[in-house]
Each structure stands twice: as C-alpha cells, then as structure tokens.
Amino acid sequence: MLFNSLEFLIFFPIVTLVYFLIPQKYRYLWLLGASYYFYSCWNAQYALLMATSTVITYLSGIFIDRAKTDTGRKLSVAVSFILNLAILFYFKYFYFTMDNINMVRSMLGLSVLQPKFDVILPVGISFYTFQALSYTMDVYRKDIDPEKNLLRYALFVSFFPQLVAGPIERSKNLLTQLREEHRFDYNRARYGILVMLWGFFLKLVIADRAAIIVNTVYDKSAEFGGAILLLATIAFAVQIYCDFASYSIIAKGAARVMGFELMDNFRQPYFSTSIAEFWRRWHISLSSWFKDYLYIPLGGNRKGTARKYFNLMVVFLVSGLWHGASWNFVIWGFLHGIYQILGSVTLSTRKFCCEILHIDRKTGHYKLFQQIITFALVTFGWIFFRSEGLTQALTIVKQIFTNFEPWAIWNQVTEMGLDNANLILLVLSIVLLIFVSKREQAGVLVFERVEKMHILARWPVYLGLIFAVLIFGIYGPGFEASQFIYFQF
User: Fold this and answer.
1) For 358, how many CA atoms within 13 A lie in the half-sphere containing its CB?
2) Fewest beta carbons less than 10 Å away: which of 108, 259, 304, 485?
C-alpha cells in the first residue's frame, strides 16, 4: 500500500477514526494490526520475516536485562546482531554475493553457479532491521529499560507511518510514546494533514514529474550528450530529495494526526556548505544511526586522525552497501567518504587561502559559493546512485566531461519526456520548494505560521495544496502509483 494510492486515502482515515473511538488499552493492538495489514499489502509472507526480527530483538532485550555478567549481555547483543544481519544479508545481498563469486570463478575458468531458487527483497527490510537493532543497543547501553510487552514492542518495529522508508526511529522516542494516552486534538490533526498535503505535493507534483526526465534520459543514456545527462542528473537530485523527503513528511504528518511525534529526517540538505553538513541534514535518522552504533563504537575521532578517517570510510562504505547491493552504491559511499576526508584535510589550507586573499568566509557570497560546490559534489555522486550499474555510471561521467554540448539542450529538451508546459510547471514548483526551504532554514516554521493565520487566509493554503496535487499531480489513467525510491532499500 503506497501513501500516494487510493487505498491509503481510505485506510488512514479509518485507522485514525477507530484509534480514537476505542478504549486506550486496546489502541496499540489496533495500530499493530493495522501496521501488519499495511505491510502485508506488499507481501503477507514477509510480514512473518518482520515478526521474526521483532521476536529476536525483543528476546535479546529481555536476556540483556536478566544477564548477570557483562559477557552474557554482550553475547545477547551479538546473537541479536548476527541473526538479524544474517537475515538482511540473505535477502538483500545474496545475488550480489553470487555475482561476485561467479565473476571470480569465470576469471579462473570455472563454471558459473546458478541458484535454483529466487530471493525477493522484502520492502523496507533495511529500515525495520536497523530500528530493531537500535533497540537492542539502547537496552545494552541502559539508555532505556527493556519493553516487557511483546505486542507493544512489535508495534514499535512495525508502526505503519514510518515502517517502509523511515525515519528510523529510536526506542527512546517512539517506544515511549506508544505507552502514552493520546486524545484527539483538532488543531494537531489539522496541522498533521497540512504537513501530509505538502508531502503529497513534493511527491506527486515535483518528484514524479522530475522522474519522467530522469527515467527517459537514463534509460537511453547512450543517445544523449553530456549536457542533457548533467541536466537529468540535476533532475534526479531534485527527484530523490522530493521523493524521499515526501515520504518522511507524510509519515510525520500521519503520525502527528494520531498524536505521535516522529523525528525530522531532512533539514534543507541542499543548502549545506560542506559534505559534513550535508550528512547532518540528509537522511538524519540513518546518519545518526551510523554515528551512534558504528562510528562511535569503532572509536570515532578519539583514537587519532588516521583512525578517524578510517572510521569515516568504513561508515560510508557500509552506508553505500546499505542503500543497495551493487558496486555503484559502494562507489557512491566511497565518494562521500573521500569528500569528508578531503574536506577535513584541506580545512586549514582553505582557511589560510581565504586569509591571504582577504576573503571573508562569513559573507553570504562565500556561503553561496560553498553551497554550489557542495551541491555539485553531491550531484556528481548521484550519477553512481541512479545508474543501473557501474558501467553505465562511468559512461555517463565520461560523456559529461568529454561530450558536453550545452547548445544541444535546446534541440533535445523535448526528447526528455516532458512538454514545455510540464517543464515550466516543474520549474515553478521547484521555485516554491526553494522559497519554503529558505524560510525554514531562516528559522521560520512555515506550516506552524500557516496554522496561526486567520481562517480566511489559512484555507486558501489548504485548498491551494489540494488542487495543486489533484490538478498537477502525476497520476490517473496511463500512470500507476509510483513507488517511493527508498522502498528498494
């Protein structure tokens, strides 16, 4: 069941209405059933897989709490991680591993191995696995007490608004809220629906429209020159942000309607002035997960500069693999690791150069320059992220740097999948997004300000978003509800 589907527009109001009508003691059970139904709409069999991960991590929390020695506690954590990561590895990395084994066997003149069964990647497995594992670590670190109620803990793992594509919630935030009583609040619900509308706008009006350009050009990348390929890559930068951020925004809004507060997953990442800042603003729940549960346990920056850079590279290589079982994702992670290391190594040199050239690093012009450079580096990395494989990515990079003909844009713009009217609409929508993002970056909480406006000023905003989605959204005859990009991870 997709957020941008008719089924969800029926499912969500029913779930919310029943949630507030039934007694408090049964509400978490109702949400648990709704969450498993929501997930089973993709594949009911894989709901059992999520249940397995849930039971493993639930029991690990109990065993950690009851263990009388530190060795017993560590053993419980190790078993939880090994079993969950083994499940994740099998379903997500089986074919990747087989492909690499077969590549080596072919080089040695050996026959290729052919699996006799199919392995289908369960939707959202990386998200709920990481969320469950964070609970294990939080209990081990004594940040929280273990949850004794298995069904309430199962809801924490499967909570449907953020189940499939995040944000990856922490037990200290969401699990605590699942124990609280939530009463219906009209103002809170109204605000949540407004946030959801903005999410639908980002997905249906911007992301899915930009996707037409990206898919058209990348599917026929050999037919286009470097300028068009670069333009399509910039369109992908827009698409992936609006697509992924829209899911987190809709999830946050839906949870808000029912009284739950989910963490922010994005904070205007394309306005970052460095790659390090970008990762503090992009997919915040995953970045903080890797920081807390991988980077810091590896030693963080406490064991010298060389070890710090090694730890950074490990984190980004693992992050690349988390996103996809393919070498182009590994290269994408490697690039961001290199960006981070080079940014740190050259920091003092860049400061010195600015002093010599009398450049004020606090001016708006210098920050704009930094933002442009950061966006260019991030966009270059998106080539490897979007490409079907490493070969295509390298070919596109070569085309951009050796066959860059900007004048070709005017001749081929109509071959990118959108007519002039839709191109203009896409540009205007992006301008609106930039305006809202700039206001948010300046500390203006746009949607909270809308909620405080007079009803005569507030309702035109509601209706404007509704009609924008209905009139300009990509859906209807000839289109299928487009999956969110991060469902594949």
Assistant:
1) 0
2) 108
| Distance from C-alpha of 219 to C-alpha of 216, rounded to nearest angstrom | 5
Which of these, 184, 77, 79, lies nearest to 139 by C-alpha position?
77
In contact, 333 and 346? CB cutoff 8 Å:
no
Residue 323: pLDDT band with limits 50, 70, 90: confident
pLDDT in tens, 439-485: 888 888 888 888 888 888 888 888 888 888 888 887 654 555 556 77
My answer on whether omega of the bond before 115 falls inside 30° of 0, hence cis, is no
Residue 255 CA, distance from chain mean position: 17
| Nearest C-alpha neighbor of 246 from the set 488, 489, 487 | 487
- At residue 284, the 3 state secondary structure works out as helix
Domain span at residue 415 reads: 188-488
The verdict on residue 134 lying in a domain is yes
What SS3 state is found at 269?
A: helix
Cα separation of 417 and 342, whole Å? 38
For residue 371, give both structure tokens. Answer: 């933002």
In tens, the pLDDT along 41-57 reads 877 888 999 999 999 99
Catalytic residue among 182, 323, 358, 365: 323
> What distance in Å separates the CA atoms of residue 54 and residue 151, rounded to the nearest whole number?
10
Domains: count for the chain = 2
Residues in the chain, total: 489
Residue 204 lies in a domain: yes
- Summarize pLDDT for 270-282 with one digit per residue, the tens: 999 999 999 999 9
pLDDT at 487: 63
Distance CA(178)–CA(323), nearest Å, equals 29
Q: Which of 172, 199, 221 is the last residue before a domain boundary?
A: 172
The reported pTM is 0.89
Choose the final residue of a domain: 146, 172, 198: 172
Active site residue 283: no
